[in-house]
Amino acid sequence: MAAFPLPHPLYYNEEGNVVIKAGDTLFRLDDNALSALPYNFTKLLGEPINLRTLNGGDRFNNARPLRLPVCIEARHFERYLWVYYPVPGAPAVHQMRANDWFRFLKCFLVLQAGIERPSELTFNERVQRKLSRLSAINFDSFSRV
């Protein structure tokens, strides 16, 4: 792991006001972008997102980022953003390969389906229990388990 998280080359917008950490990567997005994503990020906080602190600073900054569940790496969240928050320089959805879609799907399942709960099981084992029809898929690469 890197000593310090690095800003994502496409999804670190200096004008953004919410910093999200996935793995060792920081994503800085505008709160409007967050509200447009299909996932309700307040689930991670247990409270509504109040983007500003009482002293007027950003609540989620480089020193205090909003942390995604550990099983979501930067490459997973990046693919999620490719689909829901395209920016210049990011591949279009029709250019995504199978591995990209499986990384997207892992992030989507963790954020949307509540598979992020701590467990002794691996991510694939949790998916197998929740979605038995997808049990033969490795969500980190396009291969059979």
Structure write-up:
A 4-stranded mixed beta sheet has the order 1-3-2-4. The model has no long low-confidence stretch (mean pLDDT 76). The chain starts with 5 loop residues before the first strand and ends in a 15-residue tail after the last helix. With 145 residues, it is α/β, with parallel strands linked by helices. It contains 5 helices and 4 strands, in the order E-E-E-H-H-E-H-H-H. The longest helix has 16 residues, at 98-113. The chain has helices spanning 31-36, 42-45, 74-84, 98-113, 123-130; strands at 6-12, 18-22, 25-29, 66-67.
Summarize the structure.
With 145 residues, this protein is α/β, with parallel strands linked by helices.
Termini separation (Å)? 26 Å
Instruction: Quote the average pLDDT.
Output: 76
**Number of helical segments with 4 or more residues:** 5
Shape: globular
Rg on CA atoms, Å: 16 Å
For the largest beta-sheet, the strand count, sense and barrel status come to: 4 strands, mixed
- Name the helix and strand elements from N-terminus to C-terminus, one letter apiece: EEEHHEHHH
How many strands in all?
A: 4
How helical, in percent, are the residues?
25-40%
